[in-house]
Amino acid sequence: MSETATPFGNISIPANLSKKRQRAVLRALNWCDDIARESAVWTREEASHGLRLTRAVNGHELAVYPITAAKLDTGVFVGMRFSPGHLPVEVNGAPVCVTPHKGRTGELHTDMVACFLLLCGGENVPLIHLPHTLKSALYPECFNPQGRPLINHQQLRRRRELQAAFLPLASTLDDAVAHVNALEPQDWAMLRDGFRWPFHREVAVAIAQGIVEDHLERDGADVLWALGQLGEQQDAEFLARVRHLLRSSPHLAVRRFALTHYREEDPETAWADLHHFLDSPHTDMVWLAHERLSAHCYASLEDRLVERCDGLLEEEPDRWLERKLVMWLSHRQNMDVWVRRIIDELPHHELSHFLQRIQTYGSWFERWAKERLSSPLEGVQIGIVEASKRNMAVNHGQLWLPLMKHGSGEVNRVVLYGMRDISEEDAYMLIDEVWHSPWRFVLRTAYMLVPHNFPNYPGMRAMFEAGLNSSHDRIRRDAQKHLDRMDQTDRLSSEPSSA
After folding, report:
1. Are 232 and 213 in contact (CB under 8 A)?
2. 8 A C-beta contact, residue 35 and residue 348
3. Is the pLDDT of residue 190 over 50?
4. How many Å apart are CA 72 and CA 251, to the nearest integer?
5. Closest Cα to residue 274, out of 292, 249, 260?
C-alpha cells in the first residue's frame, strides 16, 4: 500500500488498485473539498473515523465522512459502521442508511458524497430530494420512519368539516362568497389548500376576484392562490392585474409572481414599470427584471440595460448576480477583466456552467484554456469551445484539435457546430480529424454540417469514402448517398450546355 495525502487526511491505497480509479477517487475528494469551502454551512471537525464535515439541520447534527467514502472506493476496511453501497452519513452521531436512488450502482462513494454535499450545501435543505431515512432522522416531528408525512388527525377532521359545510353552498355564487368571507383565517387557509376548486371554477374565480381587489389586506398566500385561479387564460384583464400588483403589492412573493408573468408590448412602458426593480435588494428580483427587459421584443432598451448592468457590477453585487451579469454582458462588450477574475476564483466543478455562457475576446484565453484541455469534466471542455468560438484572437485549430482527438463524442459534436465561426484553414484541420471518430452521432453531425458550412472542403470525397468502411450500417448508407449526390453533380457539370 502507498500512503497518499488528501484534503481530508491520509489514505492508504492498495498497490493493485488501478491508476484510473485512484485518480477518480482523489479527484472526487478534491471536489468535496472545493464544495465544502465554497459553502458557508459545512464545518470541518476531527473524529475517530477521520476528518468529517458537519452542519446543523432543524436542530440536528448532520455529518459526512469523505475520507471514509474514499476508503470504501479503494477497498480499504472501514469497520462495520458503514457498508459498501451506502454513503458515510450520520445524524446526531448515529449512522443513517443513505443509498443511491436506483439501488447499488457502479458510482464511486466519493462522487456520491460530493453530490450530497451540493444537495445539502444551501441554507435550506430541499426536503423533496432527501431520502426518506434522512427525512425521518432530521425531521422526526414531520415524518414517520418510512419518510411519509405524519398525519395530524385533528387537522384532517377539521378540513373535512370545512369542506362538508362549504360544498352545498358552492352551487350558489353569493352564498359561497359570503361563507368564505365569514371564515376565520386559519379555516379559510385549510379550505383554500384542500378544496377541489377545478370542479367549481365560477365560485373560485369570484372568490379570487374579491381577494385581488382587497390584496393590500390579504395574506400573500391568498393573493398567489387568487392569481392562480384567474391566470389560466392569461387575458388582458389578468395582465392588467399583474401590472397593478407589481407596483402596489406589499408581498415579495406576489411581486415575484407578477414579474414572472409580466407582459407589455411597448418597450418604454416596460422600462418605466420594471427598471426600478434593478435596484432591488433581492438579487433574484433584479435578475427577473433583467430577463424581462432583455427580451427580444424590447431590443430598443438594450443600450440602457447595458449601461445599468455596468453600474450594478460597480456596486459589487453578490457572486451569483455578478456572474449572471458578466455572462450576459460578455456577449455585448468586452468583459475579459471580469471573466479572468471569476474563472480563476471558481471551483473546478462550477467552471462548466460559466464557460458555456460567456464570450471572450483576448488571446489570454487560449493560454488559460490550454492548461485545462485535459480536464476530466466534459462540461469544462465544452465550455472552452463555447467561450472561444467567436474570439478572433484565438487559434481555434490548435486549441480545439486536442479536444477533437481526445474529447468525448459530445465535445466533438460541439466543436463541429462551433466551426462555422472560425477560419476555413482551422476548420479543415479539425474536419480531417473527425473522420476517425468512433461515434455514429458525431459522424452523422459531420455529414450534415460539413457540406453545408464548408462546401469547398478539399477532403469531402475522401471523408465520405472513409464512411463506407464504417461498422455502422446507417453511416455507410449516408456516406453512399452523399457520394452518389457528388457523382451526379460532377456529371451535370461535365455535360456540355445546350445551345
Report:
1. no
2. no
3. yes
4. 49
5. 292
User: What residues form DSSP beta bridges with 61?
Assistant: 56
What average pLDDT score do residues 209-228 get? 93
The pLDDT of residue 149 is 76
Average pLDDT value for residue range 371-376: 86
Closest CA to 463 of 439, 444, 491, 488: 444
CA–CA gap between residue 479 and residue 380 (Å, rounded):
32
Q: From CA 117, how far away is CA 32, in angstroms rounded?
A: 7
Question: What b-and-e string marks burial along 109-140, b requiring 16 or more CB atoms within 10 Å of the CB?
Answer: bbbbbbbbbeebbeeebeeeebbebbbbbbbe
Q: Which three cell numbers stand for residue 193?
A: 389548500
Tell me the DSSP string of 368-402.
Answer: HHHTTTT-S-HHHHHHHHHHHTT-TTS-HHHHHHH
Strand partners, 53: 44, 64
Please calculate the CA angle 485-491-492 and round it to the nearest 5 degrees.
90
Burial of residue 29 (CB within 10 Å: 0-12, 13-18, 19+) is: buried
Distance from C-alpha of 491 to C-alpha of 177, rounded to nearest angstrom: 81
CA separation for the pair 412, 58 (Å, rounded): 46
Mean pLDDT of 383-394: 94
Output the pLDDT for position 499.
44
Residue 421 — pLDDT band, cuts 50, 70, 90?
Answer: confident
Beta bridge partner(s), residue 90: 63, 95
User: For cell 458557508, what's the residue?
Assistant: 40
The secondary element (H helix, E strand) that includes residue 147 is none
* Cα distance between residue 147 and residue 97, in whole Å: 12
Question: In this structure, what DSSP letter does residue 101 have?
Answer: T
Q: What is the mean pLDDT of residues 378-401?
A: 93
Answer whether 8's CB lies under 8 Å from 110's CB: no
pLDDT, mean of residues 93-115:
83
How many whole angstroms separate alpha carbon 73 and alpha carbon 84?
Answer: 8
Span 298-322, average pLDDT: 94
Helix (H) or strand (E) holding 278: none
Q: Give the amino acid at 351.
A: L
pTM for the whole structure:
0.74
b/e burial code for range 412-424 (CB count within 10 A of at least 16 → b)? bbbbbebbeebee
Q: What would the grid cell of residue 28 be?
A: 472526487
The full set of domain ranges for the chain reads 2-138, 151-263
Q: For residues 334 and 495, what is the distance between their CA atoms, to the nearest angstrom?
A: 53
Query: Highest mean pLDDT: which of 92-96, 125-129, 157-161, 326-330?
Result: 326-330
